[in-house]
């Protein structure tokens, strides 16, 4: 019986050439699966036709934009997910959703093998294969670039030999991954970490140094989920897309960082994530108003671990499920409005309001109407500092 390979298909050179390559090398039928995560660019139907023209026996295009926004991006907002306190997980968030649809396609089409285009140096090989192992451990996984010493030169030669309908003349100096949550750019001259990014590298964001009027925006949250902009109720996808447009027009969300990859190497990455950075900034501020102090302190460590798990490809893991439950509990009262000014590459919070606010004006004010009993502070301070005073006396006594 002929094996059927389900290929994660992007429509680019590598995955297009992978179709005849896998068919020849494995004697298999290839089913191409392209997932629309709001990445824009080429028409998805054109990508589907290309897969068939390259020899796929079947090709699917799956519109997962709304699913990605609601089921993957919004949980990241509630967890304030920033890997190394900076990276908003735009590639890492998309992989488990792609895996989910690859596994479903294998079930529909009788696939026994799943193929992806990742190399052996990156994080995505882990995200794909650990995810597939969690959802469908019976499926085999093949990565041509890693398993068969696949190179770009070989891909170009095979495309020309087979007469595939793809342009091999243009070679981008960058490796780019993009979706609704943001855009990642690496390789090329960026591999020298002293080189500064050039302006034409960016697509999602305008130059923050250019003069323009600021943009004021009010975000409304319900239980940690953004539900409206400037009073207009929107779907999760619409919220993120609108913030990408408005925050991106102000240059918000540019990141240039050297990050620690899961495989043990450091990698220089340039990111654009205007909507993600604006949303997480606003959400953190609303949490500061509505989440009790000890819960908020503990949640910071949970947020960090959540981001690490997703970055490390452990979306489908018991610990991730447990942390999701904790995060959901903390978000019960994260409801209200946050006003922000978008300008000069920054999203700055200028106001916050919530019926669930823990901020008490009468306790906080220094003016008339202050209800805080300052006389109680004397005893509190003495008791709070008692362990330190005892330790200091001990140290003085023992020299």
Give your account of this protein's structure.
The protein has two domains: 170 residues, 3-Layer(aba) Sandwich (Rossmann fold); 178 residues, Argininosuccinate synthetase, chain A, domain 2 (Alpha-Beta Complex). By secondary structure, the chain is α/β, with parallel strands linked by helices. It has a five-stranded parallel β-sheet, sandwiched between helices. The relative contact order is 0.13. 44% of the residues lie in helices and 20% in strands. The mean pLDDT is 93. Helix 10 runs antiparallel to helix 11. It starts with a strand and ends with a helix.
Quick recap of the structure?
Pathway: Amino-acid biosynthesis; L-arginine biosynthesis; L-arginine from L-ornithine and carbamoyl phosphate: step 2/3. Helices cover 44% and strands 20% of the residues.
What is the count of helical runs? 13
The CATH homologous superfamily of the largest domain corresponds to Argininosuccinate synthetase, chain A, domain 2
Number of strands: 14
Assembly status: single chain
Q: Span from first to last CA? A: 82 Å
Provide the structure class: alpha/beta
Overall, the morphology is elongated
């Amino acid at each position: 019986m002929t094996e059927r390979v389900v290929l994660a298909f992007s429509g680019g050179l590598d995955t297009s050439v992978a179709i005849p390559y896998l068919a020849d090398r494995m004697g298999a039928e290839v089913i191409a699966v392209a997932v629309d995560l709001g990445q824009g660019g080429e028409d998805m139907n054109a990508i589907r036709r290309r897969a068939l023209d390259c020899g796929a026996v079947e090709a699917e295009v799956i519109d997962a934009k709304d699913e990605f926004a609601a089921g993957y991006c919004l949980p990241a907002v509630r967890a304030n997910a920033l890997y190394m306190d900076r990276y908003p997980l735009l590639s890492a968030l998309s992989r488990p959703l792609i895996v989910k649809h690859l596994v479903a396609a294998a079930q529909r089409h009788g696939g026994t093998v799943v193929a992806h285009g990742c190399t052996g140096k990156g994080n995505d090989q882990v995200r794909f294969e650990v995810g597939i192992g969690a959802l469908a451990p019976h499926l085999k996984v093949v990565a041509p670039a890693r398993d068969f010493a696949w190179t770009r030169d070989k891909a170009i030669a095979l495309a020309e030999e087979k007469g595939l309908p793809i342009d091999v003349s243009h070679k981008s100096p960058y490796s780019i991954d993009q979706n609704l949550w943001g855009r990642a750019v690496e390789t090329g001259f960026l591999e020298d970490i002293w080189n500064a990014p050039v302006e034409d590298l960016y697509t999602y964001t305008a130059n923050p140094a250019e003069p323009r009027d600021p943009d004021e925006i009010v975000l409304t949250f319900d239980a940690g989920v953004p539900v409206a902009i400037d009073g207009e109720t929107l779907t999760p996808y619409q919220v993120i897309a609108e913030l990408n447009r408005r925050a991106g027009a102000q240059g918000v969300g540019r990141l240039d960082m050297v990050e620690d990859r899961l495989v043990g190497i450091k990698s220089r990455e340039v990111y654009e994530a205007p909507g993600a950075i604006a949303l997480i900034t606003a959400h953190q501020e609303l949490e500061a108003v509505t989440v009790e102090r000890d819960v908020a302190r503990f949640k910071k460590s949970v947020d960090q671990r959540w981001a690490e798990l997703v970055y490390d490809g452990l979306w489908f893991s018991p610990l991730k499920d447990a942390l999701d439950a904790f995060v959901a509990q903390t978000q019960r009262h994260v409801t209200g409005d946050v006003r922000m000014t978008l300008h000069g590459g920054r999203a700055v919070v200028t106001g916050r309001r919530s019926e669930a606010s823990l901020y008490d004006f009468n306790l906080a004010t220094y003016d008339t109407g202050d209800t805080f009993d300052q006389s109680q502070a004397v005893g509190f301070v003495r008791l709070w500092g008692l362990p330190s005073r005892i330790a200091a006396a001990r140290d003085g006594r023992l020299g």
